[in-house]
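Page 37, top half.
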Amino acid sequence: MLILELAFTSSPERLAARPAHRQRLARLQADGHLVAAGPWADDSGAVLIFDVDRPRLDAIMDADPYYGTSGVRVAGVREWTPVIGLDARGHRHR
């Protein structure tokens, strides 16, 4: 799995692009590529957990203009190996 961390700044462009971005995320979750996503409580950024490899994540990001929108910065991408919880297909890790 990969964790994508975003950092936000105040930007009307970011807020305008958010609804279409969230629709894309809903489709990615329905397809089993996205495990969870959401903003920090203070709206300074967000975390997205993907069950894909890096080339697929890059393709997902390239297809979504949100990641290049003013006010959105990719703060990092890290590989993550969960040992407790569920994967995108609902399988429990033990």
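Page 37, bottom half:
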Amino acid sequence: MKLHEIAHSRAGDKGDISNLSLIAYDRRHYALLERHVTAERVRAHFAGIVHGEVTRHALPQLGALNFVMRQALGGGVTRSLALDAHGKCFSALLLAMEIPDTPD
């Protein structure tokens, strides 16, 4: 299943860092997100776009995960030659990620 079926995303950016939150619509789906949406998978999903470290922070009380992606915006929104390098576009890309529909 694609992440957009069970979660939504919020994004922000500062300099060359993009910050993405992935929030389960229903807390019952948080276990799927926690199990399958790792920092490594997010880094691979953004291969060629994110050139630095991806760090994941779990927020179980909110049913959410937060990802900090470094070297993600081509030097920063005001420095990049990309047409739309803002982190907000990355939330849509994250929600297109496929995960299994079972926790295992």
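Margin note: The chain has three helices and four strands.
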